[in-house]
Write a structure and sequence with these properties.
2 copies of one chain form a homodimer. The longest helix of chain A is centred in the last third of the chain and has 39 residues. The first copy, chain A, is mainly alpha-helical. A two-stranded antiparallel sheet of chain A has the order 1-2. Chain A is 63% helix and 3% strand. Chain A has one domain: Multidrug-efflux Transporter Regulator, Chain: A, Domain 2 (Orthogonal Bundle). In chain A, helix 3 packs antiparallel against helix 4. Chain A is built from 5 helices and 2 strands, in the order H-H-E-E-H-H-H. In chain A, a hairpin with a 5-residue loop joins strand 1 and strand 2. At the A-B interface, helix 5 of A face helix 5 of B. Chain A binds a DNA duplex (30 and 30 nucleotides) through helix 2.
DNA sequence: CTAGACCTTGACGCCGACGTCAAGGCAACA
DNA sequence: TGTTGCCTTGACGTCGGCGTCAAGGTCTAG
């Protein structure tokens, strides 16, 4: 199939596919006229990339999965490097959620404080130091 | 005080202060030689901006707080517009955390699945469809 | 008088993941 | 044969929040 069909079947733009190729994530054979030609392997490869991107993975983080698939493994996460990326992402998510929880608490405390100042008379003297 | 002192006292670069000014967040009087001159009002203003940025607010989101302070209110969050930004940020954080939780679960499920495939023999037939 | 520290504006660079446009080649159909 | 639709490469634009450099003006201490 050519680039237009691959784009349509994967839901990405042709520009995106060329971009993946420029990053070394996607390879293409060429027809005699210079057109890119793809097979089903590339289709699955792009689907793998998109699935990970939907999870918030950066393109570079999908590379081990891509390499794994291209090495002939049945799934992109059949290789140790891919699993390391999974683990790193879990740690990253945990750190981000911790930070978000902390920020959320402080913002909410500020909101409550400011609201009470507008309605009620004086600011309550108690400290709003909640712990998760 | 001049820009270098304000930068040092707020912990930001002079470039950053000039950038704030270009965005209309910061104003400056000028000395006869053209140098920017700031007072304590601007100091508090920059501190307000940085405090919000540390919470992950974009510069544009700090504008209501800045306007509020410049209007003479005692705090940046003494005005309704600022409280709206607080509320919007809380909603944004909640949505992001919901999304992160979902992604986290799916990534962890993939990890467990892939790990068990590598160690144990066959993939368990059960579906890992956890609900929050 | 000069070195050095401070200040000015202007402009380009960076990151990530592409969007969009330009200028042209190739293929198929009326 | 001409039009339409696909394809090619190349290059600039986008967004946010600045970093960094260039080329110059200003002020102060020695």
């Amino acid at each position: 199939m050519r680039i237009g069909e691959l784009a349509e079947r994967t839901g990405v733009s042709t520009r995106t596919l060329r971009y993946y190729e420029s990053r070394g994530l996607l390879e293409s054979r060429r027809a005699v006229n210079g057109y890119r030609v793809y097979g089903d392997g590339e289709l699955r490869l792009v689907q793998q990339i998109r699935a990970l991107q939907d999870f918030g993975f950066e393109l570079e983080e999908t590379r081990p999965f891509v390499d794994c698939l291209r090495a002939g493994h049945p799934a992109g996460d059949s290789c140790p490097d891919s699993l390391d990326v999974y683990r790193g992402k879990l740690a990253e998510i945990d750190a981000l959620m911790d930070r978000l929880r902390a920020v959320r608490m402080r913002v909410e405390a500020e909101l409550v404080r400011a609201e009470s100042r507008r309605q009620g008379a004086s600011v309550p003297r108690c400290e709003l130091e909640g712990r998760t």
